[in-house]
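target protein:
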Amino acid sequence: MAGAIDLSALKQPASAGGAGAAGPSGGVEVTEANLEAEVLVRSTQVPVVVLLWSPRSDASVQLGEVLGSLAAADGGKWALATVNVDTTPKVAQMFGVQAIPTVIALGAGQPLSSFQGMQPPEQLRGWIDSLLKATAGKLSGGGEDSEQVDPQLAQARAHLEAGDFDAAREAYQAILDARPNDAEAKGAVRQIAFLQRASAHSPDAVATADAAPDDIEAAFAAADVEILQQNIEAAFDRLIALFKRTKDDDRTRVRTRLIELFDLFDPADPEVIAGRRKLANALY
């Protein structure tokens, strides 16, 4: 998950449910449509444990059952999400999975801990307890005692959870128009705009840009696709190289797009720091 898009500014309603279907252990099944809502957004409220599994793997199924039992016993203190690597390979690729089963824990949109392979139930219990201890008081929490949510934010979040990006973006933009400093709305509009744009590109965008390296629009599309594929450094390097070859208005366009892409991530992300440094060097 290194370099994963940072959706930590967004929040999820208190309910642990969602639009995803049940996975092998009762957790929410993650798809490309609900990844943001069920994993990154949800993890701003409670820790989310993501199981990357395959029905072809007995160890995966067994691990899912144990995690499901632990999640049920803990009564919403953390959320379980499952990714079937056979049916959702793009999501698995985004998590950088190299073996199954793999388990990744997230909090506030960021990876916290991970392991591969089956673990004894008592070790899993200890791992979960350590996760809860590490995030205690640092997330927004859940349950009936959660603070009242602004109705406009609740509606925007509901659209996002349902995967209706058009409606979610419109709702968040309305909030931002009324409250320009609203951090959640600002982050949501930026992230949703990128996801809509990037997901509309052709899968061949990278090859097309490689064949025409000075085509600015092709390079923009390729960089978007590379970020979706978690090739963050490649996306930044592509546009920095193009920046060096362009002049005047074209040069400004490329720089503007680079800054826009940098802003999708945590400023402390090593790849963002490296990208900004390369861009600064290219300016002189």
